[in-house]
User: Which sequence fits this backbone?
């Protein structure tokens, strides 16, 4: 089970969720300090693909600041 609001595996859950959202034209911010890759090379490739397809990368502190504004 993948969760978008918990720290999860970059090369699996994050990659699948990011691809699905970005392919649907959604804006996406990935909280980089809340994820980790099971396989380092696969994780880097996943983040590179997400970046090239429109994802932005933020920190947990930035996410919390954004949440407080909304």
Assistant:
């Amino acid at each position: 089970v993948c969760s978008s609001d918990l720290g999860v595996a970059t090369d699996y859950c994050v990659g699948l969720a990011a691809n699905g959202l970005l392919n649907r034209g959604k804006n996406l911010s990935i909280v980089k300090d809340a994820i980790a890759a099971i396989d380092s090379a696969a994780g880097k490739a996943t983040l590179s693909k997400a970046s090239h397809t429109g994802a932005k990368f933020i920190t947990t502190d930035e996410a919390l600041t954004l949440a407080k504004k909304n």
Summary: The mean pLDDT is 89.
